């Protein structure tokens, strides 16, 4: 039995999400947070695949107002261009290769409230598209299904022949970006190949502030909504106003101004507006007449989103609700005969309240990631089995099925099924948002006391971990686990406005390093001999100016610091002398090493215990193996099933074995020296127990017992941990017999963790039934970090979410509970 | 014989086609009320059991609007067809099964008469069927049957549904669909346009996790709303797209393909989407779509009428109705509809503004929660002289109800407290008593203790202001007997004196003090104060009564009767010893006899002779109530029949449901003068009522000093009869002719908009004051604000008249 020591004393202040954007292919979602950072999430069809692929720290002082992910970017990259606007009037682009924020438009002097990019399939598909839309919207009796498919197809087309062709054919035409400015103007810029945006034109200035802007699907019109309650329709080419809709009812001067906070133009010729009075209204775009008005929100309606088929609209607001509206064709002449022009109505269907705070943003994504093929296989395999698990998330989260993602002030992201919105409860994508990176240095040479390095956004904390032996119990890490006390040893603050990107501490604890946006820094930690408990931190002056890094690691003997620089090289620095030993250039093939570096940024690095191997992993899940002795690249492992790597490490037992956990919840063991998949992996990777593959939450780390005899590893996510023993057989028999129980537990986990206490009992039962491989243990509170202190003791750092909520800036949505 | 006090809200009412009359199911009859006055016009009598459905034949053409025909269905298994203006019974169909609900879809979607011959008319009836099952006692279940009304027979073999319990069938306004709620599902059938005996029905089911209470159909669209016990309203749209579409299925084939695109719909239910609205906190009883389909009306136990705008979900409320809502009925007049409330009231609503025009109210039904507080009677009190009955109600008031007129006289709020229908009652009015002249009322109310803290009894004396029984509070006495409960209250027959007895072992005599001026010039208004306190061996005092002349006060001290001089407060005598505590005590008229009743395991009814201070005679009878005639020497008791006799009783087929008997005695003779068997006697009340002068004409054969005997059963249905008449003397007393004349003049034109004009008479003025008309007196005719101006036809006449008379200069 493993003894568990808990600590909940860390400060954890996640930051609210202010904007969301989906990439052109729908496989990634960008989330902009209030502290200026940006996260790229990999959209997954299942609960397992959600993975925070990248985190980019931007300017913490500028508050982002909106995000736009243009379909194609420079150099034909498939990622497109991610552009954000900020309250201070600047527009920035997020470079997903260099992981930094670049200003593409200097401040225009007024705040930018919203941006909208021209619809991607405009000019080249214009004619074809319009005919289709006409057919579907007006002439076709088929309600939704057919339209779905056709549009889906055409979108696919446009995705595939993406940028290159378009650039060849229409080299002059750029995507236009409409920017809603505080002074009442809508400014249009071209997104060109150059670094900066080029000015196109400005629509006439109107009264009030322009708060929202959107393009019509054919890109001929621009709709803008202002703070004085008007929606204006503009001709995009001629820049004159076509009509104006007065949303503010009555237009009396007595009440406060009505702000149009969000606009949506649907293919069927309907405009949807969301305003500060809590109503969502549907307008006929041709005449500007009101079709339907719903005031279901009890506060500002902040965001709108439409399902890809454009027959459903979602709205979300400051009351924490996400509401679904559906178009309903009214079959009044219910004789079943062909109705040539059915009256269509937008009706309120239902709401889901997953967020405790205001919802700020909504987006719809379609999981078509690189996992398609394999996932299909997986599904097939499961179908072949006798008793497929009835797992609620898998019921709706399928490939190519659109999902809705919402995020807001409670810092969390939730995914919903767009089609069966009311049927299933939403999935909590990130149970531990903005988890602080932590590292534990065991057996430091300060009395062998473990030191814990916690990286906050502007400072590093080093704690000394002391275990109270008497309080230790060997129960599962619920409330009854033993406590571990953490004493602050040192706090290193960096300069304001320079966020810490990455940090590391050596295994001996003598040195640690961090990097911000400017450069990397190396420090020495000493315990002065004179007094007791006096720690000194000394900054090491390096002879060579290190570039700033995306990732850092020390070699196991603490003699070398490895820095994955922003210039895509990996620098090996001698800690003692501070000299640069070598610089690797990761490449796919051996002979490429001389070429300039062109690989995606390295986000994770692991070193082996014997100091021979370095595994560097880029954000897409490619693994580069370097030999630190010969200072050469040893091997390149292409991304495994196209999934990203979520965690990894070299086993202490055999330094040649690299264990990798991917976002599709596969565990691989590589024999690095032999450049092949390890024996265990060959046998078991594709037949892992199903319950492991449905591991609740994204795997965020691995922990090996610090002994050379153990063959097990603990894999953990913010919600649960699991023990995998590579020495024991992977028994698939118990899998089937436990299937029902597991299904139960997992469903309970899905249901927002309300029934976790039950789950724990269940887990305990499993534990008592004997030691098994893939043994699960669920956590009550979101866990940030799990690491072995010794072979039989575990340090778990968690934080009750309620305490985190209290530290948030905004209060939760007040809900009047009936009867109180 | 006058019967009354029936429940108006046992079944939904129906409006006549011109919306001037409202047909209400009242027990075995259907009462017709005028909607303009709220008074009863006539009655349809003929059913032998409570009427459960009344359906007015709608007018399809303007010409047939004058036709006033209706169908009624009753638990006696008969369907009757009436002309309710006459009122005249036209046809009777006997289906021999208790009908709980009936709908006639054909009436609503009148099929076009193709060959001159009108097609058969079918009714769908929800009947109770007793099933014989092996190994089980006869169990009843509900079945939906079809009845051919034209041929007066049940359509053979048609049984649409079988349920555990018969309930209510809901019909869509177009008559195309009928539906029922059955536990967690709704069942909906499509009625074929050309209905025949062996029609095939398309049906669907809609499911939910909670028990449904009501459903409603949208008038034009395929929208179904249903309410459940938790207060949710579910709204399905596109119901039955698959099942009910008769045309080419392949056109809608796309619908089946994307089956998962039906948000909110459970399982494989045939609907496009399902929206849930949740405002009501407890069950929804009323759901109704407005006739244009733009609004949904809902109501429930909390007594708030809610109007939902279907498109936006916005709500409007009509709060403070004060009682759970049961039914909503609309009329052909779009501005008039009715809601039936559980407190036996039907409110007529003016619709868009949702204001209550007037109410038709019966006796407020006894509350279901009245058993919370033990040791108190039902508190009903008969006002002998005025022919009224005072009934304590749920909303902390006392309702005065005229027995002769069968209508509410007034309501007195006893306790300053808002009544919320959903809440548990915290205060209960236990006892009501009126002085003989009706000028004073005494009430005892008890606050129910919460967590055994805060229980409080208070005694209130009220003074009557005028004839209308509007009482004003005179004196409040908190805890008249400390923390003990008050068992009875009685008034002195002549002087302002009252006695209360308590379970705490004492009784108090209260007298009213006249207005006095104290020395500091403060006016002390007349109030009641304690005159004397008496007790007997610390025994609980369970009943009290004054003798007819007020000289003797009898107080029952559990098993004995103590006789006191009320003025001097001297114990005069103690008589008797019965086995059980005496609960009722009454002096028999002006005779020297006292009658006491003590229920319990050894019930006893005893007549005591005051002259001998001994038992005259006694019966082992469980007397529920005793009432004595005021002057004579007779008294009536309401005796509960022993349970054992029930096995014998059903042999007489007519006596089913009988559980009590009214016995009329003369003091001299232990043999009852007359016996009547009654039902629902548990908790019933008896009272002698003096006939009013008007009635005496009709009761010419009755001596006025006897009066009439009123019996009110536990459901507050009452019957008023002459105890000395012949037994089967079914003399129908025509009510006081206050029945409104329905044929009141229709207001047309100007009068319908602005109301009647004030009489505009020039001559009248001329006769009174001699004056010389002003030369241009037509100016005065046209002066004044335009909205007060008389119509031109009227003015013109005056104008011309005045201008013609100008030459005859002087009058007188």
Automatic annotation (TrEMBL), chain A:
WD repeats lie at residues 212-244, 294-335. This is Transducin family protein/WD-40 repeat family protein. Pfam families: WD40 (PF00400). Residues 146-163 have a biased composition (Acidic residues). Residues 138-165 are annotated as: Disordered. Keywords: WD repeat. InterPro entries: PCN (IPR044622), WD40/YVTN_repeat-like_dom_sf (IPR015943), WD40_repeat_dom_sf (IPR036322), WD40_rpt (IPR001680). It comes from the Eukaryota.
UniProtKB/TrEMBL annotation, chain B:
Gene3D superfamilies: YVTN repeat-like/Quinoprotein amine dehydrogenase (2.130.10.10). InterPro entries: Beta-prop_WDR75_2nd, WD40/YVTN_repeat-like_dom_sf, WD40_repeat_dom_sf, WD40_rpt. Keywords: Nucleus, Repeat, Ribosome biogenesis, rRNA processing, WD repeat. PROSITE patterns: WD_REPEATS_2. WD repeats lie at residues 277-318. Coiled coil: none annotated. This is Transducin/WD40 repeat-like superfamily protein. The keyword Nucleus applies.
């Amino acid at each position: 039995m493993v003894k568990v020591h808990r600590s909940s004393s860390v400060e954890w202040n996640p930051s609210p999400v202010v904007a969301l954007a989906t990439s052109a292919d729908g496989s990634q979602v960008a989330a902009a947070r209030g502290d200026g950072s940006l996260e790229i999430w990999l959209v997954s069809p299942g609960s397992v695949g959600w993975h925070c692929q990248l985190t980019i720290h931007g300017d913490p002082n500028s508050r982002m107002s909106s995000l736009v992910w243009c379909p194609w970017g420079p150099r034909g990259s498939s990622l497109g261009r991610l552009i954000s606007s900020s309250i201070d009037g600047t527009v920035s682009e997020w470079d997903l290769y260099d992981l930094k924020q670049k200003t593409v438009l200097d401040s225009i002097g007024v705040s930018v409230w919203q941006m909208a990019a021209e619809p991607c399939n405009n000019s080249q598909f214009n004619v074809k598209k319009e005919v289709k839309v006409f057919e579907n919207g007006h002439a076709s009796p088929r309600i939704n299904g057919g339209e779905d498919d056709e549009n889906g197809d055409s979108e696919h087309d446009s995705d595939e022949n993406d940028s290159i062709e378009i650039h060849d054919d229409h080299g002059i035409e750029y995507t236009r970006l409409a920017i809603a400015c505080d002074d009442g103007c809508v400014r249009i810029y071209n997104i060109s190949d150059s670094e900066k945006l080029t000015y196109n034109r400005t629509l006439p200035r109107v009264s009030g502030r322009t708060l929202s802007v959107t393009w019509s699907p054919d890109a001929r019109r621009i709709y803008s909504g202002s703070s004085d309650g008007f929606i204006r329709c503009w001709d995009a080419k001629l820049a004159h106003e076509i009509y104006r809709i007065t949303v503010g009812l009555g237009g009396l001067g007595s009440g406060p101004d009505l702000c149009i906070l969000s606009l949506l133009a649907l293919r069927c010729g309907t405009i949807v507006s969301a305003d500060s009075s809590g109503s969502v209204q549907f307008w006929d775009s041709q005449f500007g007449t009101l079709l339907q008005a719903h005031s279901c929100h009890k506060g500002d309606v902040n965001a709108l989103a439409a399902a890809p088929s454009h027959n459903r609209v979602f709205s979300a607001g400051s009351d924490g609700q996400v509401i679904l509206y559906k178009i309903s064709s009214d079959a009044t002449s219910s004789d079943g005969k062909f109705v040539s022009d059915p009256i269509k109505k937008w009706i309120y269907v239902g709401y889901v309240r997953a967020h405790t705070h205001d919802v700020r943003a909504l987006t719809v994504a379609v999981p078509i990631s690189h996992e398609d093929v394999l996932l299909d296989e997986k599904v097939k395999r499961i179908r072949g089995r006798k008793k497929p698990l009835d797992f609620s998330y898998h019921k709706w989260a399928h490939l190519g099925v659109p999902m809705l993602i919402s995020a807001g002030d409670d810092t969390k992201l939730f995914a919903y099924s767009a089609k069966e919105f009311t049927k299933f409860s939403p999935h909590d994508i990130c149970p531990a948002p903005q988890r602080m990176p932590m590292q534990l240095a065991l057996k430091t040479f300060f009395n062998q006391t473990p030191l814990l390095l916690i990286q906050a956004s502007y400072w590093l904390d080093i704690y000394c971990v002391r275990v109270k032996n008497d309080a230790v119990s060997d129960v599962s890490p619920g409330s009854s686990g033993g406590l571990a006390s953490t004493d602050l040893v040192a706090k290193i603050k960096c300069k304001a406005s320079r966020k810490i990107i990455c940090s590391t501490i050596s295994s001996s604890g003598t040195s640690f390093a961090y990097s911000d946006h400017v450069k990397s820094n190396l420090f020495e930690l000493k315990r002065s001999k004179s007094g007791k408990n006096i720690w000194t931190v000394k900054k090491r002056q390096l002879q060579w100016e290190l570039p700033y890094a995306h990732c850092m690691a020390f070699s196991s003997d603490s003699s070398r610091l490895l820095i994955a620089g922003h210039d895509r090289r990996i620098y090996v620095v001698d800690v003692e002398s501070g000299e640069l030993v070598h610089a690797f250039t990761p490449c796919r093939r051996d002979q490429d090493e001389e070429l300039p570096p062109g690989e995606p940024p390295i986000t994770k690095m692991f070193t082996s215990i014997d100091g021979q191997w370095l595994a560097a992993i880029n954000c897409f899940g490619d693994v580069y193996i370097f030999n630190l002795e010969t200072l050469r690249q040893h091997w390149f492992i292409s991304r495994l099933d196209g999934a990203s790597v979520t965690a990894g490490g070299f086993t202490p037992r055999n330094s040649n074995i690299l264990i990798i956990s991917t976002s599709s919840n596969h565990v691989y063991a590589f024999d690095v020296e032999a450049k092949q998949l390890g024996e265990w992996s060959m046998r078991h990777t594709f037949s892992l127990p199903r319950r492991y593959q449905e591991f609740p939450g994204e795997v965020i780390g691995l922990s090996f017992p610090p002994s050379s005899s153990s063959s097990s590893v603990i894999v953990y996510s913010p919600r649960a941990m699991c023990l995998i023993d590579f020495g024991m057989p992977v028994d698939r028999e118990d899998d089937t017999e436990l299937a029902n129980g597991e299904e139960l537990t997992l469903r309970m986990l899905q249901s927002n963790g309300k029934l976790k206490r039950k789950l724990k009992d269940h887990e305990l039962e499993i534990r008592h039934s004997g030691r098994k491989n893939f043994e699960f243990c669920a956590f009550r509170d979101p866990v940030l970090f799990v690491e072995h202190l010794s072979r039989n003791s575990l340090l778990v750092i968690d934080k009750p979410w309620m305490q985190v909520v209290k530290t948030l800036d905004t209060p939760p949505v007040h809900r009047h509970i009936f009867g109180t | 014989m006058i019967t009354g006090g029936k429940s108006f809200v046992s079944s939904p009412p129906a409006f006549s086609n011109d919306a001037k009359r409202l047909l209400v199911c009242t027990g075995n009859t259907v009462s017709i009320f005028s909607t303009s006055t709220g008074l009863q016009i006539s009655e349809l009598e003929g059913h032998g059991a409570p009427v459960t459905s009344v359906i007015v034949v709608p007018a399809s053409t303007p010409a047939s609007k004058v036709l006033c025909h209706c169908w009624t269905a009753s638990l006696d298994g008969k369907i009757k067809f009436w002309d309710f203006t006459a009122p005249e019974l036209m046809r009777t169909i006997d289906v021999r099964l208790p009908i709980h609900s009936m709908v006639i879809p054909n009436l609503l979607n009148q099929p076009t008469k193709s060959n001159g011959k009108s097609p058969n008319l079918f009714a769908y009836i929800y009947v109770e069927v007793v099933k014989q099952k092996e190994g089980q006692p006869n169990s009843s279940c509900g079945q939906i049957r079809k009845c051919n009304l034209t041929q007066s027979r049940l359509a053979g073999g048609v049984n649409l549904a079988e349920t555990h319990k018969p309930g209510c069938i809901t019909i869509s306004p177009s008559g195309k669909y009928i539906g029922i709620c059955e536990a967690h599902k709704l069942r909906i059938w499509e009625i074929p346009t050309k209905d025949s005996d062996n029609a095939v029905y398309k049906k669907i089911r809609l499911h939910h996790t909670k028990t449904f209470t009501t459903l409603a159909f949208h008038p034009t669209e395929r929208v179904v709303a249903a309410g459940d016990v938790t207060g949710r309203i579910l709204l399905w749209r596109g119901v039955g797209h698959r099942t009910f579409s008769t045309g080419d299925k392949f056109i809608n084939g796309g619908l089946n393909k994307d089956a998962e695109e039906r948000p909110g719909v459970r399982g494989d239910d045939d609907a496009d989407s399902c929206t849930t609205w949740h405002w009501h906190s407890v069950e929804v009883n009323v759901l109704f779509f407005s006739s244009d389909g733009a609004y949904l009306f809902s109501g429930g136990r909390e007594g708030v009428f809610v109007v939902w705008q279907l498109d936006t979900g916005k709500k409007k409320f009509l709060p403070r109705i004060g009682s759970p809502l049961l039914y909503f009925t609309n009329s052909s007049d779009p501005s008039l509809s009715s809601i039936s409330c559980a407190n036996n009231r039907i409110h007529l609503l003016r619709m868009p503004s949702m204001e209550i025009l007037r109410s038709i109210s019966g006796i407020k039904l006894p509350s279901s929660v009245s058993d919370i507080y033990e040791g108190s009677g039902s508190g009903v009190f008969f006002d002998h002289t005025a022919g009224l009955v005072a009934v304590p109600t749920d909303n902390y008031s006392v309702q005065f109800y005229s027995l002769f007129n069968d209508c509410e006289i007034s309501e007195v709020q006893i306790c300053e407290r808002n009544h919320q229908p959903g809440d548990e009652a915290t205060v209960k009015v236990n006892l009501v008593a009126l002085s003989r002249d009706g000028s004073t009322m005494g009430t005892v109310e008890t606050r129910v203790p919460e967590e055994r803290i805060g229980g409080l009894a208070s005694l209130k004396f009220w003074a009557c202001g005028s004839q209308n029984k509007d009482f004003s509070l005179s004196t409040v006495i908190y805890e008249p007997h400390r923390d003990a409960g008050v068992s009875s209250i009685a008034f002195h027959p002549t002087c302002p004196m009252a006695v209360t007895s308590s379970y705490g072992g004492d009784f108090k005599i209260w007298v009213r003090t006249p207005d006095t001026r104290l020395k500091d010039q403060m006016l002390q208004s007349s109030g009641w104060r304690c005159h004397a306190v008496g007790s007997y061996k610390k025994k609980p005092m369970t009943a009290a009564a004054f003798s007819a002349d007020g000289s003797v006060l009898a107080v029952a001290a559990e098993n004995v009767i103590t006789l006191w001089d009320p003025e001097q407060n001297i114990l005069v005598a103690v008589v008797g010893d019965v086995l059980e505590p005496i609960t009722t005590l009454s002096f028999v008229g002006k005779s020297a006899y006292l009658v006491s009743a003590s229920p319990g395991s050894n019930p006893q009814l005893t007549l005591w002779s005051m002259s001998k201070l001994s038992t005259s005679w006694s019966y082992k009878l469980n007397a529920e109530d005793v009432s004595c005639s005021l002057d004579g020497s007779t008294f009536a008791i309401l005796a509960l029949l022993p349970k054992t006799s029930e096995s014998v009783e059903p042999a007489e087929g007519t006596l089913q449901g009988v559980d009590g008997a009214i016995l009329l005695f003369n003091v001299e003779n232990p043999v009852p003068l007359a016996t009547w068997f009654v039902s629902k006697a548990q908790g019933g009340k008896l009272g002698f009522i003096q006939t009013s002068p008007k009635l005496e004409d009709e009761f010419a054969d009755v001596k006025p000093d006897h009066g009439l005997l009123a019996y009110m059963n536990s459901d507050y249905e009452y019957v008023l009869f002459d105890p000395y008449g012949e037994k089967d003397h079914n003399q129908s007393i025509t009510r006081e002719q206050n029945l409104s004349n329905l044929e009141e003049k229709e207001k047309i034109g100007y009068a319908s908009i602005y109301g009647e004009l004030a009489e505009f008479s020039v001559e009248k003025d001329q006769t009174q004051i001699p004056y010389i008309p002003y030369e241009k007196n037509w100016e005065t005719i046209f002066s004044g604000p335009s909205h007060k101006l008389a119509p031109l036809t009227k003015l013109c006449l005056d104008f011309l008249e005045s201008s013609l008379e100008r030459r005859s200069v002087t009058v007188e």
